[in-house]
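One example copied in:
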Amino acid sequence: MTEVSEILMSVLSTIRVPRPGDRVHKDECAFSFASPESEGGLYVCMNSFLGYGSKYVDRHHAKTGQRAYLHITRTRKTQKEDDPNSGSGDPPKKKPTRLAIGIEGGFDVDQEQYEEEVKVVLFPDRQEVTSEDLGSMPDVVRERVSLSMAGLQAADSVSHALQVQQWDGEVRQESKYAAELKQLDNGVKIPPSGWKCEVCDLQENIWMNLTDGKVLCGRRYFDGSGGNNHALLHYQQTGYPLAVKLGTITPDGADVYSYDEDDMVLDSKLPEHLSHFGIDMMTMEKTERTMTELEIAVNQRVGEWEVIQESGTTLRPMWGPGLTGMKNLGNSCYLNSVMQVLFTIPDFQTKYVSNIDKVFAEAPSDPTQDFKTQVAKLGYGLLSGEYSKPAPDPGDDPSASTEPRGDQVGIAPRMFKALVGRGHPEFSTNRQQDAQEFLLHFINMVERNCRSGMNPSEAFRFLVEEKIVCQQSQKAKYTQRVDYIVQLPVPMDQATNMEELQEAERRRDEAESSGAPPPAVTRAQIPFAACLAALSEPETLTDFWSSAVQAKTTATKTTRFASFPDHLVIQIKKFTFGLDWVPKKLDVSIDVPDTLDLSTLRAMGQQPGEELLPEVAPPPLMTPDVEVKGILGSHGNEEDDSLYSPLLSPVLDDSTVSQLCEMGFPLEACRKAVYYTGNTGIDAAMNWVMGHMDDPDFSAPLVLPGSSSAPGTTPTESVPEEHLATIVSMGFSRDQATRALRATNNVLERAVDWIFSHLDDLESMDVSEGGRSEGGSEASREPPPGPRVRDGPGKYELFAFISHMGSSTMCGHYVCHIKKDQQWVIFNDQKVCASEKPPKDLGYLYFYRRVVE
């Protein structure tokens, strides 16, 4: 022990005590998904507080020379919940009675299920030091090491700090209507039992309006159960805001809902309001489950096979490489589904997994914050099979289900989710998100982090050609834009079972008028060919400003593929808005084919003898998240400042600008929206506004492409040397940095955003300090090429799809199906099983790969 004491003394300066604000990674390895529960436990560096599994700790020691690590191991407690006489000394695990996390009566957190052991391990010989061993060591050693151990154990882990560890879903606010609620003196008295809906005679989920005493059924749930919405309809007709759920009234309170406030609320005058209708709270007993109890029951069922489309079939669990489940971190199923699909694509496997040793070797000092490292870690975790093992039995009642559980140890992508969501207003939260939006967000991050070398996002990237023909002059305008996803409209009027739908609508109206239960839902059958036709058919633009006739006229717009990607993503536009602007989901079945031939949708470009519309603005080239320069108008290229004089203002459609301004958007943003959509109307401009509201220069003055200056400045204005140095330090050339600063009026933040949005343009740039090509004349200079796109035949085969269950992208659940060796496999978070009946007609995102003949 003397030798160990001397070693500790020699490395004492590398042993730190965590301070407030230090990031402590004690739950997950920086390079793998090893944790304290894994075999070998987790080693936490006592200097950087980064965690490493047994496979990677030697690498860290060799690279940094760090010798002292806190070794944490956790073993699962064995509990027999239903046997109070088990003699284990632990009380049986209680079922949750409160819709809360980390609060008495709420859902337990995982830490309570484990016993933890900690000790200091000294490398390279892995000598162990326990807290008891420190007692015989010099005071200075004992004090420093003990404080560090205690601080690390007490510190909040980063992964836990990123989650909601203590949350109470039962905290309700006093209703604004409670104190002054108006109650009608209509003589209504409510009996203490035997309630039923006054409209449909339903006897469950019954609510009494606290204004007029009407007894009506509650809302209909997504699965058709619950009520028939009569209490809600009564509020919509009368405006009486508060209702109490009969059967939940006890001397302690009851469930009170405010329709206007759209939430469960408190009513401090509830006894008085109930007695108005003859109800004595002190004598009432609970006969119905409260809304909280119902929500708890739903939360306990999350993950069961009953909530997915193949619930009627016993599914065979699968294990092995490429068959690894992912834990749901709280509404993270959208992320799980997208990443499962992406890592079946060879480009992502090659970029991040095939050379994982090189990626890890080049990782910075804090690999938890490195995009490439964390994506490689996730990819290896999914593909290696190391974590594709049956999960330990949590001790649930074995009689509860005879169905194979299928749960895996799987991986919990906490670091990955925190990194890709950092700074994003939606993906940094624990709320449910749109899988399509996350896919585009992740692709954008890949683009930004693949300035050099292979870029796997190129597998999805394609060019779209839009052709607009002025109907008055018959002249055409061609623009191209980059895209990654084909958004397929759903033409409801093309349903093949229209008569059946009309009959169902008639039966539903009859049921509502008579108060009878609603009939079973009939799903619209939409041919895939009709969706494709709706995408490709010409669109009429009734408010198009034509540069040929210098006036508004009618035009037709046709959209075609200028290139076909290696992998094609198709989004079915199921989510839309009703007339009341409430989001709704179209309940449709679409016969999505296993093979697809889009060859007839290839763009043909300008036709012989076809005249082009005069250019009033260079056609923009846009990506879904960022602006990408690539195609310039016939007036020259970006280096030619003289051809884009700030004095030559673009011709903008003033009426469209005014309409946008009336909606509350900044004037300059409205001008840019109209400019960058080529005066093609309010719809296109509105789409541009919605897609660029988060841009840092959203409200900045419109700067014409190539002008590199705002009105009132000169293109040759000096560039701040400190801004140049900052951008050059990021790996860009001085010429590129100068160009970015001039394009953004010397605003550093905007310049950095601009330069990442123009990578392909900049990589092809070969200009001198002055902005002119050396040794070349103006006439010989070509516009810079656009983003790199792959092209090939437009024939594809389906290999994966992501499905959504629920009424909105902001709620519900996502699962994905992936074809592995001719076998469809369903990935439902931690459950991975062979699919018997893949619901290909009900998907949301479809993934196709090119068929090579």
